[in-house]
Amino acid sequence: MNMPVILITGALTGIGRATALAFADAGSRIVISGRHDDAGQAFATELRALCADVLFVRADVRREGDVRNLVDKAVERFGCLDVAVNNAGTEGKPGPLTEQTAESYAATFDTNVLGTILSLKHEMRVMLAQGHGNIVNLSSTFGSHGAAGASMYVASKHAVEGLTKSAALEGAGFGVRVNAVAPGPIETELLNRFAGSAERKAGAIAGVPLKRAGKPEEIAQTIMFLASDKVPFITGQIVGVNGGKTAA
Amino acid sequence: MNKPVVLTESYAAKFEMDVLGVILSMKHEVRVMQGQGSGSIINISSTYGHEGAAGASIYVGSKHAVEGITKSVALEIAKSGIRVNGVAPGPTDTGMLTRFTGTPENKAALVTGVPMARLGLPEELANAIVFIASDKASFITGHILNVDGGHTAN
Predict the structure, then answer these.
(1) In what order do the strands lie in the sheet with B82-89?
(2) Number of structural domains chain A divides into
């Protein structure tokens, strides 16, 4: 029996990279995507050394043509699409609302929201026809909580949670599950850019009951769990992986 | 059966009105209110600002975004004497609801999800907005007030 076919967007860094590595073991069939050809090909080579069967497809999730091509190339190569992880995301340009513009709004929403919409659209196109599929979106603690100085990012992740729930309801009668993982502060370059300084980063971590940032590998494990066939009754859920932050 | 129908154009049209519109409105309202040292902003969300709906993912996404902006800006300016809250109507008898549901049957079907077994009235929403806007709600900020006949209590 063939291993499931896994598609990961934004797979070249951070949580996406850790997720690809977690899925990669003997015989895994993985499609990785990102915007940079050289980095993409290099990472594909690295994954193949772990005996995974890997295809890299360059895609910018803000462009529908790229997303359509990514999904079509995955199906062309492997015959089907079992799991999709919509990880491509940006912190945008944090700052107070009074400094936001139509451009700063688009800089965050085009990747985090439109990118997720287009990815869901084309993945579900294939999965609904197959009668099975499993999608995991990336939200954030800030998908359900506010943050001063980050209203664009917060709003974009709230939107991702709304899309997740709606898509889950649409897929429920067709064997397609849609969930999201909502990380707290995770040790990645995105966190460093989002925090903007060592002091603010330390402040974000101080709010975590476990008193540390999470590791990308820890998010990857939850994604793998949701993507597995162990939990077929879980859909439309947002799973917080945040060291207890939202329990407070 | 609800089939997902998603076009890039429909995303931009909805989000520009419901999300960017709220962002730009709040930006300039806050600018004035910070100068005054007082103010109260109410954004309009929806039950769908915190729940999903099949066949309405773009609308749902946009209203979730409005709730996120509401909470963030409330936190940003909490010390400045300005409050920012949201009101989240359940099904309310308006022209928008008539268009959203498309047929009298679909509109009537919404009532089955409402414990009070009726639609809300625009005046009821207005009363909630007036209360939140008033000094009577002076310790309420960053809150989304559901006005939905008990729907989210379920």
Answers:
(1) B39-44, B82-89, B144-147
(2) 1
For the domain that residue A43 is a member of, what is the CATH number? 3.40.50.720
Domain assignment of residue A38, given as a range: 5-184+217-239
Residue of B nearest to A125 (CA): B4
Q: Is residue A200 part of a domain?
A: no
Q: Decide if A226 touches B, using CB distance below 8 A.
A: no
For residue range B52-89, list pLDDT tens digits in order.
999 999 999 999 999 999 999 999 998 899 999 999 99
Sheet holding A83-86, edge to edge: A53-58, A29-34, A5-8, A83-86, A133-138, A176-183, A238-241
At A49-65, the pLDDT tens digits run: 998 999 999 999 999 99
CB contact under 8 A, B57 and A158: no
Mean pLDDT of chain A: 94
Within-domain flag for A199: no
Is residue A179 a contact partner of residue A237, using CB atoms and an 8 Å limit?
A: yes
CA–CA min distance A27, chain B (Å): 33
